[in-house]
């Protein structure tokens, strides 16, 4: 089912995120004169201090940019209620300062966990349990550690396992979103600052949270099937025809380099899966911009604190 009518931004960029700067890659699609997008091969995200200014310079004044990041943007509602937070955007500049000065420092032991130091554990996870977090934060059970929009991802504050997302959130909030939010009035974060169609209708940069693994389903990619792994080059290459077909159907042109990378499964290097997800995430964002997929934003106030994942249906 298609989404709302959205004014096409001049540039759509998706960044596949990691706490390790070497594994941060972004893919971009620029709007051409004829109204179609030209998608380019992934490039390194580079300096976080200049990320948004580089995007702005690439399109010029008066244009809109839509950029997505696959790290959580928002807090679990039950936790926020416990600590008296009602608006994530208002809380973001406070994290890491004053009474929240230890927020970005993961607790080393159960006794270190507190309302203002909720990430856990730091370092060795031997003997650690999610229940330590639940109890220390005064929550009822493990489900209170998750936001409503989260499906297969790990709980924000739990830093154990291959699916943990908290370390990426720490780097994304502390080093990218918080500094930019404090000094750039033209930066909007969806859905906290409004409906996507409204935000993209005006000049500036709009940020959204993405989840490439969910996009696999929307694009009908084989990588989502049991037994396939994005860390394996042949499994990534097996989706080349589907990715090319999606682009052709939607009038999205691919540069020669991007075509080659898609066909090649994004190469043999360890960053192949990151570049793959950067492009998949970009196609997912374009699916929303082109009206093929609804943005998914729910119609209640939980998005002020929890946020939402782009394209996730509130069922």
Description:
With 315 residues, the chain is of the alpha/beta class. It folds into two domains: 11-72 and 171-304, Nucleotidyltransferase, domain 5, CATH 3.30.420; 77-85 and 92-161, no CATH class. The protein contains eleven helices and eight strands. Strands 1, 2, 3, 4, 5, 6, 7 and 8 form an eight-stranded mixed beta sheet that branches. Helix 6 (196-199) links the parallel strand 6 and strand 7 (204-209). Helix 7 (212-218) packs across helix 11 (272-289).
How far apart lie the N and C ends?
A: 14 Å
What percent strand?
A: 5-15%
Q: Specify the structural class.
A: alpha/beta
Number of domains: 2
Order of helices and strands: EEEEHEHHHHEHEHHHEHH
The DSSP helix count reads: 11
The CATH topology annotation of the largest domain reads as Nucleotidyltransferase, domain 5
Let me know the average pLDDT. Answer: 93
Query: In CATH's first tier, which class of the largest domain applies?
Result: Alpha Beta
What is the number of strand segments?
8
Helix content: 25-40%
CATH architecture of the largest domain: 2-Layer Sandwich
Outline the low-pLDDT stretches: none
- Spatial shape: globular
Main beta-sheet strand count, sense and barrel state: 8 strands, mixed
Global Rg: 19 Å
């Amino acid at each position: 089912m298609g989404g709302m009518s959205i004014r096409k931004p001049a540039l759509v960029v998706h960044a596949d995120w990691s706490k390790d700067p070497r594994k941060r890659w972004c893919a971009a699609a620029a709007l051409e004169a004829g109204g179609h997008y030209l998608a380019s091969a992934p490039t390194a995200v580079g300096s976080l201090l200049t990320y948004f200014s580089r995007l702005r310079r690439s399109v010029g004044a008066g244009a809109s940019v839509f950029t997505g990041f696959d790290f959580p943007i928002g807090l679990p509602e039950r936790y926020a209620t416990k600590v008296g937070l009602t608006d994530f955007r208002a809380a973001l500049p406070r994290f890491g300062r004053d009474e929240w000065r230890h927020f970005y420092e993961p607790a080393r032991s159960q006794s270190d966990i507190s309302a203002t130091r909720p990430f856990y554990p730091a370092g060795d996870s031997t003997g650690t349990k999610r229940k330590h977090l639940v109890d220390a934060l005064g929550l009822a059970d493990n489900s209170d550690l998750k936001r409503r929009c989260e499906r297969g991802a790990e709980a924000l504050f739990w830093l154990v396992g291959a699916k943990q997302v908290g370390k990426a959130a720490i780097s994304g909030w502390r080093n990218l979103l918080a500094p930019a939010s404090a000094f750039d009035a033209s930066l909007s974060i969806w859905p906290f600052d409004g409906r996507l169609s409204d935000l993209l209708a005006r000049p500036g940069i709009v940020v959204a949270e993405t989840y490439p693994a969910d996009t696999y389903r929307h694009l009908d990619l084989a990588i989502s099937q049991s037994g396939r792994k994005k860390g394996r080059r042949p499994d990534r290459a097996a989706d080349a025809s589907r990715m090319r077909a999606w682009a052709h159907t939607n009038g999205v042109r691919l540069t020669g380099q991007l075509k080659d990378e898609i066909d090649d499964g994004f190469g043999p290097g360890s960053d192949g899966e990151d570049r793959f997800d950067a492009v998949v995430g970009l196609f997912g964002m374009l699916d929303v911009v082109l009206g093929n997929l609804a943005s998914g934003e729910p119609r209640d106030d939980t998005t002020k604190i929890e946020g939402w994942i782009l394209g996730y249906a509130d069922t």
